[in-house]
Design a protein that fits this description.
Low-confidence stretches: 1-7
Oligomer: single chain
Number of strands: 15
Largest sheet: 6 strands, antiparallel
Helix content: 25-40%
Strand content: 15-25%
CATH superfamily of the largest domain: ATP-grasp fold, B domain
Number of domains: 2
CATH class of the largest domain: Alpha Beta
Length: 296
Amino acid sequence: MTAELLRITRFPDIDLFKRGKVRDVYDLKDKLLVVSTDRISCFDVVLPTGIPRKGEVLTKISLFWFEYTKDVVSNHLITAEVNDYPVELSKYKDILKNCSMLVKKAKPIPVECIVRGYLSGSGWKEYQQSQSICGIKLPAGLIESDKLPEPIFTPSTKEDTGHDINVSQEYVEQGLGKEITAQLKELSLALYSKASEFAESKGIIIADTKFEFGLYQDKIILIDEALTPDSSRFWPKDRYQPGQAQPSFDKQFVRDYLETLDWNKTAPGPELPEEIVLKTSEKYLQAFEMLTGEAL
C-alpha cells in the first residue's frame, strides 16, 4: 500500500466528487470511481494513523458481498478490474489496484438502513433507557449483546458531519414516503438474513450492519460498501458470551484503546501506537479470510 492511501488520494486530472472519512470518490461523468483508503475514523474523527491494507480489505469484502447478495438486490458495481477502467485512469493503476471499484452513478437515498440482530452499541444504550430501539418495543430483561428475537430495522439519518441520529421508521416515511421506506426495510432485512446466516457458518456473528441504497434508472440498488468491518459489528462466534461487550473484528478494537486515553474525542485525533495498528490490521485481514476462505 502506498503512503498516499494512508492519508488521502490525489488525482489532479480527475474531478473529486466526495471525500469521506475513509473513501475518496471521483467523478467520471457517467460513473464514479470509489477508492477505499487505509484511513480509520473513530467517534467521527479521522485518526492521523492509517491501518495497513484496510482499504484493500474493505474493497474485497464489499466485492464478495455484492456477488453473494446480487439475487436479493442489484448493486452499483461495474468492475474492480483496473485494466478495464477508463483510459484516463491507466496511469494510476498501481495505486488503484485492489482498493478501488468503478460504480454506477446512482442518486443516494438519504438514510442509513441499519439492521440489528443483537443488542449492542447505541441500541443497547437506548434499550436501557426505554426498552426500545428507534420506537420498536423489545422484551424486558434483555442483557448486553443478547440476540434479539428477530432482526429489526432501525434507520438513522445520514449526516455529512457529526453523528448520525437514530430515527423511527415513521420518521423515514415522512421524508421518503411509505412505499420506498417499506422497500428499504424489506431489502435491508433480506440482505442481513442471507449474509448473517452465511457469516455464522464461517464463525462470524454479524451483530448489526448498515446498508446504503440509491436510485439508478428508477430502481433501488445497493451502493457504498457492504457488510464490512467498518459498516458492521463482526464478533467471533466461538467467543460469544451475552452480558458484556464482545471481542470484535472491527474498529471497536481501536475505539476501546482510545477510551483509555485522556482525549476529548474531537479533532485532531491521537496517533495510534504500532501494536494497536498491527493488531487492527490483523483483525481486518482475519475477517476477510474467515468469510471468503482466501488469504490476502
